[in-house]
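User: quick one, fold this
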Amino acid sequence: MLDRNVVREKPDRVRWAIETKGVDIADLDAIIEMDERWRELKAEGDDLRRQRNEISERIGELKRAGDEAEAEEAIKQSGTLKSQLDAVEEEADDLEERIRKQELLLPNIPHDDAPDGEDEADNVEVHRWGFDQIRELPEEIIPHYDLAEEMELIDFSRGAKVAGGGFQFLKGDGARLEYALLMFMLELHREEHGYHDIFPPIPVKSTAMQGTGQFPKFFVDDAFRIGGKNDEPYDDDDLWLLPTAEVPVTNMYAGEILLDEDLPLKHVAFSPNFRREAGEHGTQTRGYVRVHQFNKVELVNFVRPDESDKRHEGLVREAEEVLRRLGLPYRVIEICTGDMGTPHHRQFDLEVWAPADDMPDGPERGGRWLEVSSASNFTDFQARRAGLRYRPERHESAEYIHTLNASGIALPRAVVAIMEYYQNDDGTITIPEVLRPYMNGQEIIEGHDPVGESAVGAGRRD
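Assistant:
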């Protein structure tokens, strides 16, 4: 949510943000009109209160002077003023509620340095890493979706049987590889980057989704609602499966006031995440690239407003460090204004290189880019929605905090990149060195025997 003073004083800037982010459901003109009327009502209410206070003093004076008739008349005037004041306050409260509903639709204003653009084609590459030291790859790299099923590491068909399309079983070394990635990332962020571990609740209320900016725009298409249909009206107590740990962790401190000495506050959280990803299926999302349930390590930061730009840079470096330790080539891109999410002020994405499928938007060496982290600065946008504040000094008024987050990192695509980039000529997969301590020193994934009737005639692995 934007500071209302920004809407009043910089409407052209807000209008530009609405247009560049394509938030056509926001009605700025209606907000401005209602706000002007609200301010008139507040002024009228203040004047009525002043008159009532003056009459109350006069009533006391008249009673002390024994002038009961005049006092009775003044009491009647006070009652009339109270009725007028009640009506004004009721209209003002109704307008305040209507304004707030519209304000929730307004997007955050992009950073001045964010590249101007309409969509992902206008995103700007910042730098690449790892392409000067690429390991020797097989002449023909098997795509992860074929390799994972052949090696019995991921079972997509049985996942669909149990939960529907977009869900899967990780099996054997496939599951162990995922566990290893989780433990490696949590330990890295805790021990070297100074994060505090959080394991959040998986269901979240509508108020939490609203606090971080997923609602009201996000819910119709992407969220999994518990016990209801997405297109039905929801209330504050409805529950949803979290789409990202950003939601519960950011809202941990909703409605609270932190102290200056608490900051910066850095939380790392692992969670399963659930998204419908409506309309996002096809060749480029085949296999373990875009699924309805996936694991992710999330980095959530709460900082003083004057430190958020610098912390954003640090957040990108912390996410990058995961890919560097894994030895996976990647690039960092800055998201343009038109491709940025509604709550975002500035956004950098990390895209890992998966070399098997040669997609049109892939690098010169073939393969394709897969987003594994989005590092975002929301300034005070989420804080205003969730009531997140801090007190610079104990005797000073509370101010809104700045929030940031990044995936540190999302696992499905990291697993895809490892299966393809660390693939060997014989079809096995070399385990990145940093993950081996979490897999009892294992160096190679060779796959597993199939189970059930599918094993008949399939042969057995050595």
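User: anything notable?
Assistant: The longest strand covers residues 293-303.
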